[in-house]
Design the sequence.
């Protein structure tokens, strides 16, 4: 009889403990579910305007003539004059690169039914690639001095545009990320304040989307760097 009574007590105890555990897990699950709903996702933005630290400047020249050897000789003289102008005004010789000239024979053009004053057109380009952006921009403004020497510099067009770059981006990247995260946390804090809660911890975070663009069409040598990061925070009372 005592054995039966002891077994019943043990069974009752196990049942009670089981009920308590089930209740605990149910409550824990409900709390977790509630916590999942108590979160906020925000975007953090950081922007910076910086001066380009690299410029590529193609200097294009054209000559026309019927005598091809004479045409090449004139083009070589112009290229030398341009190189001298650049070096004498502070451009490093290692930053100057010449390209092979291209020749167009107008009489050989199959679809050209027009007569031309000269048979050949030779186009040559000297490219300046420098990290001294200010110096190169000053020389661009002095192209009239080349014109006075009889050297007509033509626009590079779409195939040879002047380009500006910002190569120091990797040094600036950590600071922008830090600023973007701080702005995201500030925004999340405002959301939490309106719901009478506080931000707790980061649940998810994106590495951030970076972009480097010209500030505007007229100032391509000024770059706008932008980073946007997306962060999800949990909230607590």
Sequence:
């Amino acid at each position: 009889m005592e054995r039966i009574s002891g077994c019943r007590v043990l069974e009752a105890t196990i049942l009670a403990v089981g009920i308590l555990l089930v209740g605990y897990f149910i409550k824990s699950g409900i709390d977790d579910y509630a916590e999942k709903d108590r979160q906020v996702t925000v975007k953090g933005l950081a922007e910076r305007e910086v001066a380009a630290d690299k410029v590529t400047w193609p200097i294009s020249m054209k000559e026309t003539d019927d005598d091809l050897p004479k045409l090449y000789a004139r083009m070589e003289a112009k290229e030398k004059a341009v190189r001298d102008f650049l070096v004498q005004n502070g451009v490093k010789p290692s930053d100057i690169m010449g390209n092979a000239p291209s020749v167009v024979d107008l009489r050989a053009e199959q679809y050209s039914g027009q007569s031309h004053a000269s048979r050949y057109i030779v186009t040559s380009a000297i490219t300046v690639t420098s990290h001294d952006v200010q110096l190169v921009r000053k020389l661009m403004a002095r192209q009239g001095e080349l014109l006075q020497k009889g050297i007509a510099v033509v626009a590079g067009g779409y195939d040879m545009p002047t380009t500006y770059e910002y190569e120091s981006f990797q040094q600036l990247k950590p600071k922008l990320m830090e600023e973007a995260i701080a702005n995201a946390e500030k925004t999340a804090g405002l959301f939490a304040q309106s719901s009478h809660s506080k931000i707790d911890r980061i649940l998810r975070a994106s590495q951030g989307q970076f972009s480097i663009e010209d500030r505007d069409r007229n100032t391509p040598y000024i770059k706008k760097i932008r980073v946007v990061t997306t962060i999800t925070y949990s909230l607590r009372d």
